[in-house]
Automatic annotation (TrEMBL):
Residues 45-425 form the Cation/H+ exchanger transmembrane domain. The gene is LOC108812981. The keyword Nucleus does not apply. This is Cation/H(+) antiporter 19. Belongs to the monovalent cation:proton antiporter 2 (CPA2) transporter (TC 2.A.37) family. CHX (TC 2.A.37.4) subfamily. It comes from Raphanus sativus.
Amino acid sequence: MASTNVTGGCPAAMKASSNGAFQHESPLDFALPLIILQICLVVVFTRLLAYLLKPLKQPRVIAEIIGGILLGPTALGRSKVYIDTIFPEKSLTVLDTLANIGLLFFLFLVGLELDFAAIRKTGKKSLLIALAGISLPFILGVGTSFVLSSTISKGVHQIPFIVFMGVALSITAFPVLARILAELKLLTTDIGRMAMSAAGVNDIAAWILLALAIALSGNDSSPLVPLWVLLSGTGFVIFAVLAIKPLLGYMAHRCPEGEPVKELYVCVTLTLVLAASFVTDTIGIHALFGAFVVGIVTPKEGPFSRILTEKIEDLVSGLLLPLYFASSGLKTDVTTIRGAQSWGLLALVILTTCFGKIGGTVVASMLCKVPFREAMSLGVLMNTKGLVELIVLNIGKDRKVLNDQAFAILVLMALVTTFITTPLLMAIYKPARRGAPYKHRTIQRKDHDSELRILACFHSTRNIPTLINMIESSRGTGQRGRLCVYAMHLMELSERSSAIAMVHKARLNGLPAWNKVERSTDQMVIAFEAYQHLRAVAVRPMTAISDLSSIHEDICTSAHQKRVAMILLPFHKHQRVDGAMESIGHAFHEVNKRVLQRAPCSVGILVDRGLGGTSHVVASEVDYKIVVPFFGGLDDREALAYGMKMVEHPGISLTILKFVAARGTLKRFDKGEEDEKEKKEKEMDGEFLRELMNDPRGNESLAYEERVVESKEDVKATLKATSKCNLFIVGRNAAVASLVNSTDCPELGPVGGLLSSSEFTTTASVLVVQGYDPAADTRPLIEEDVDYEGSSRDISDSTV
C-alpha cells in the first residue's frame, strides 16, 4: 500500500503483517497489527470520554471529537515517541482509507434516515424556519471569510473559501439533533417535531452547498471544470433516481415483513454504495456523495431499510467511525491558535455562528407566531453541529482551502456550539408538565357507566397476546362504560438507536398509528389494529423512547395526560418451558418499582403465564376462571373492582375468596388487637363487599366464598387449591402477613410474591394491583391546573 510522501523522500511501504516478536520483528512496523492497535486505542479512549460526559447529557459525537483532538498533536501527539510509535506518518494512509470506508457507510445510513416523503410534507412553518436558519448564517459566514482571508488565511482561493465558510456555519446535524431531543424527552413535543423537520431540510441544503463548494475548489483554473463537475453530479443523481431506486425498490418489495432479508440483497446494496462512491469520486464531488445518494433513494417502507441499518450500524458506528474522528484530530492542532488575534477570531466565528443560527431561526419562528421561549429553543437546537461539519472541514483542509489555523478554529467552533446546546436548552426551555385534574384514577368508582381508560405497556411481541386477551376480558359487554386502551411500546433509547427509528416511533406517540393512505407494517400495530376492528374498544398504540432509568416519567406523564384509571405493566420475568421464572433484565424491574412510586392512578403488574395461549382468543371462545383472594385493604378493593369489571364479559367466571382469620388478624394470626386504621379499613371492606353483592353485575358467573384460616400455611394451601384458574387478581399491599420467607420482588406484596414465584407451580397468570392513594401521591410528575388548555385535547384523543 502506498505510503504518504514526507519531506526528504518517500518511506518504504508498510508490509501487511509481521512474523512475530519471537522473530525479532516489532508488530508496530507492520500495517495490520498497527491499525488494530489504533482502532482499539481510539475506541476505548472515546468510549471512556463518552462515559465521563454522560452526566452532562452530551451526545457521543462530543466525546469522539474531543477524543480525536486529544489523540492528535494538541495533547498526546506533542510527544514525538507517541506519535512516531502509534500514529507514524507512513500508517496514516491506511488509517484514512479505513476511516473513509466507515464514513461512506455511515453517510449511507444518514441517507436512510432522511425520508424525502416526510420532508416534502414539511409544513410552511418548518420550511421557513429551515431556510432562515441556513440563509443568515451563510451570509454571515461569507462576511467572516473576508475577515479570516485578510488575517490568518492570506492567499487562499477566495470563492471556494467563501462557500466553505458559509456551509460550515450554516450546517445543522440531523442525527445529533435527534439524539439530543430524545434524551431530553422533547422528540414528541411541537418544538421537537419542528426542529426535526427543519433539520431535515437543512441537511439536504447543506449537502447541495457542499457539492458546490467542492466543485469550486478544484485545482484546474478553467471555469468550465466546476460546471462540468456540477452537471455530472446532477446527472448521477438523476441516474440514481431512475435506475438505482427501482432496483432497490424491487429488492425491498421482495422482502415481506416477518421473513429474513436475502443475503444477496444486502450484498448488492452494499456493493451499490461502494460503486456509487467510486462514480462520484471520479466526477470530483467526493465519494461520500455517492453513498449518501444511494441511502436517500433506498425505500424506507418495510423491513429492508431496517435490516440494512441493523447489519451495518454497529460495525460502522462502533469501530470504523471513531477512526474518522481520530484522523480529523490528527490534523487538528489547537496550539496553532496563539495570540490575541487568533483567539479573537475564534470568538468571532463562534459568536457569528450562534448569532446567525439562533437569530435567523428566532426571527422566522416569531414571524410564524411561535412564542419567544420556544423560538429561542428552536434556534439553540438548530445550532447543533456534528459529523457532517467535520466532513466539510476535512474536505476543505484536504483541498487546501483551509490552513491549519483556520481548520483548528472551525473544529473548536463545532465542538463549542454542540457542547452548549444541551445546557442552553435545559436553561431556556423548561416545558411545564401541567395537566388538568381528572376524577377517575381508579377502577373502583360509583359511576360504572363512565369510560374506563387503561394504559397498557409492553416491551416486545411476547407481551402482545396476553395483553390483547386482558383487554378483551376487560371490555365487559360494551353496554356499560366504554373501554379505551392506550397500548404503549416501551423502547430503550440505546446508543445504537438510529435517528430515523426514533423519529418514526415518536410520531406514533399519542396519535393513531395507522391512517387511510399508508398502512403500518409494524406487527405490533397490526395486532392492535386487527383487534380494534373486531371489538368496540378504542385502542391507540403509542411509543415511549427513553433511557430505562427515566422511562417511568414517560409512562406516568402519559397516564395523566390521557386520564387513565390504571397502568398495566408487564412483569420483568417470563415463564420458561420448565415453569421457572426467568428475568428479562434488572432495568425493567426498576422501571416497575418507579412507576409504582410515582403513578397518578392505579397500577397493575401482569405476571404472564400465557393467558389465553399464544394468540388472541375471540370473544365467543373466551372461557376464563378468575380468582380474587380478598384479605382487605385499598389494593384488594381495587383488585376486586377490576375483577367485577371483567366478570361483565359473558365468557368469564369470577370467584371471590374472602379470607378471615380464626383469631387475631390476618397480619397477626396469634395475637394482637386491631388498631384504628385496621378497624377503619375493615369497615370500608365490609361496606365495599355489601355494595358488590347488590351490584347488578353480580350474576351467575360470580361466586363468593369465605375461608377461615389459622396460619400462613392455611392461606398458602387455600391458594394452591385454586391454582387451576386462568388468572389471579390480587392486591399489592394485601392485609396479610408475608407468605414467603424471602423474595427478590418485594414490590409484588405478600400474595403477589407467592403467586409469581417459581415454587408456586401453576399456569395461572397473576395481576398484582396497587390502588391509587391520594395521600401517598406526594411527588406528582405533573402539576395540575384547572385552566390547563390541553384538557379538551386529551378528551378527543380517546376516540379513533
